[in-house]
User: What shape does this take?
Amino acid sequence: MSVVSTLQIHQAYFGAVNGTSHGQLVSSLTDTYLRSFLSGITDRPEALPTGFEISPYLSATTYRGYYILWRTWSDNEAKRLGMVFTHVLILSVQDLPRIPELSSVLSLLLDKPLPVAQQPTSLGPLSLSLIDHQKIEPVGAVPESWLTIINQMIDWHPGLLPIFVSGEADQFQKLLEDLWRGLPGTLRGLLGFGIRFTPPNKPNSALPMLVYIPVELEDKWRSKQITKLDINLVKTPEAPIEQLILNGQLGHDFLEFINNLDLSLENFRALNLCQRAYVQFKSLQPSELDAGKLLALLRSLRQLQPDPHKAVEIKRSTIKLLAEALPVVGVKEAMGLRNLPLTAFPPEDQLLEVALEQIVIDVIKAPKPNEDLQKNLLGYLVDTNAENIEPWWRQTALKAFEQSIVQDSMHTAKVIWLGVTKTETIRDYVLSTVPNTEDWEQILSKTIPRSLSIMVADSVTSFCVRRNWWDLFAETVAVAFKPVEALRRQIEAEKQLNISISPRVDKLVKRLSDSELVDIAVELTHTQLLELAGEVCGRDPKQLLPMDVHMQSWRTIWSISLTYTNSITVGLSNPKESISTFLKELAYGRASDSQPLELIAASTYANILHLPERTIIWSRLPTKLLPKFVSTTLDALVEEILAGKWTGTIEPVLMEKARSIEFIGKFLGQKWNEPAAVLSVNDVLHNLSDNYLKDYIHNLPAINGIIAARLGKLVYLNNWDSSARTLLSKAKSNTDFRPALYECTGMFNLLTKFINHQLFGHQATSIEAWYALEELLADLYEEGPDGEYKIWKKAGGDVTKFSNAQSRRAQWTEAIRLLRYGGGGKKISVESLIKAALDDYKGNSNLKALASLKHLFQS
Assistant: This one.
């Protein structure tokens, strides 16, 4: 053993300051922060249990780059009970790897406390001679409790409860010395220890890793896990860390492995990782490619040595072996590479990328696919979280995946659908990679799953719309939705196509019942659906039962069905109501379907007399159908008039029809012997004229007296001369007509009334006779008494009595006056004048009547 160098170690005494409070007594190192820290930590950690007296104990911790080691005694000289005296050694953490034996440091501590009288007022640092490492023979067996403690140490970290150790104080010190000896130098600073008298309630950052429990207090720690330092139970170290720390034979090989990794261990976790990597490395068999073990080793190497320029050889050899194993037996491990960063490995090696690319292609195109593997792969492809998927892995896998689906196939299509049914992100990605070709649309249509969720279907249909893939759209909605909803979505989507007939709609319609088809056609008002629904209703009119004629879609379906049934009422639960509603819609411009209108016009439902919208309907009806509605409605109006029920107003279109030759002729022909009916209708329609009534009266065989009076009054009020004369004629041969003639007496001139005075119920007078003569002759001989016919002269009268200055009418007045009172000529008389006129107008009945009344001219 030779002296290498000397290490300076500062020291300090802590104890009763002024005999009452614990603090620094003296120190070789001036450090205010350290002094304050040590004042608290070197005091007794807690109150002593009743009846317990402490023995000297060791403690150690780190603080601000220092490793602090101290021994504490009970201070019996202090004025206050429970005070302690502590000797502290202060080392630099950086110097710990240079100290091979803890015992050499512990030997610098006082064996017993200094009495107050011997305590110095100043203190210098201590010196520790560092010697070459003394070769120690490998151990064969150690107390089993030590192995237990070692395994607890490598899993320990701040925040956990300490490792509680119970035993004799010298056994605890021996444990510490042996642990120190085998620990890598950089980890010795983590070897903190101390004493406790009572169990802590919870983890405390102030507690060291190792806590010594005096044997006398073990019973108080039953609730805690305690490792007893029993030196009688021994066991041979087996794990590499055990071998390393306890100087086992295997420990040297393990240490060499650590050195090859060029590591500087900072914590027990790193040491544990080294052990894991070492075990993985040693378990590899040259003749057996185990991808799982290789991947585990690669991960450990990355964690232990992230520098790509260190441990290069072992990293490269591991990557090479893994790249060879992956395509053969490591598909699962290839997926496991996804969260393995390659930054810790030589950048020029791309063997893993090549192997991964081939594996991805094989997974996608596998004839007998592993769906779970494919699902996982798809999830990895879209995971952009670098914490989950490394960019190198994702980029390689994406490239391979996109290469694998360039050519369509049943296998790749099924993988696409597998991705579509996963998350939205996966779905969007796999759909975006599908080539935009007709072949791909058809193969996806053929391989579509038997069911899809609504959320998935919505994404796929949106994709189809962007691609104009309407066949796939139809297949998608067909498997995802009920038939009606599927059809609804297809129609809504295809609106942009502006096509009248879609084969996809025809295909989806076949999945619907007749009633479902009708309902959806009514809802969507889609032309193709309306046609199909109309055809269904034509074949099965009962489908029209729920029809709401207010809706144009229903009217369209009804109209189409009528081309099959040709019956306006078939299938309607209430034909009158339905037809009335239709006509109301027509009135307000909401309906214009020709088929129903044509059949209505040909039916009794053309009678719109009592429809509130009648006045509007006339202008809405097609020109060719208007006459049918007018005629049917007018017939109904006439019936109501005749029944005495009509009280409303009548539109011009009805009045016009009522006054037409066609209607009047037909009506008068029907009522040839019902003058009361004719008059009642005329009272409302005012459709009679002098010409029509004249003919009607002429052909009327008989009439009731009251009705006759109504008839006469009508003639009189309208001043219908032809009808009045016809009444006069009828009255001559049929007394039934005399009440009518009486009503229109005022329409006849005195001549007529005089000549027909018996018909009029009047007693003729001489004055009337003379007036009648004048009127008749003035009418027959408008040129006057001395005109072309020379009637006055023929009758024996003297024409010189007339003045040319008079009008011809005035000449007749003068001539009749002369005839009556004398002076008209010696030979002229009433008889001769009438006789001369009869020579000219032989058939004139008025002249004959006057001749028969010649006795009235005698006065």
About this structure: The chain has a mean pLDDT of 90.
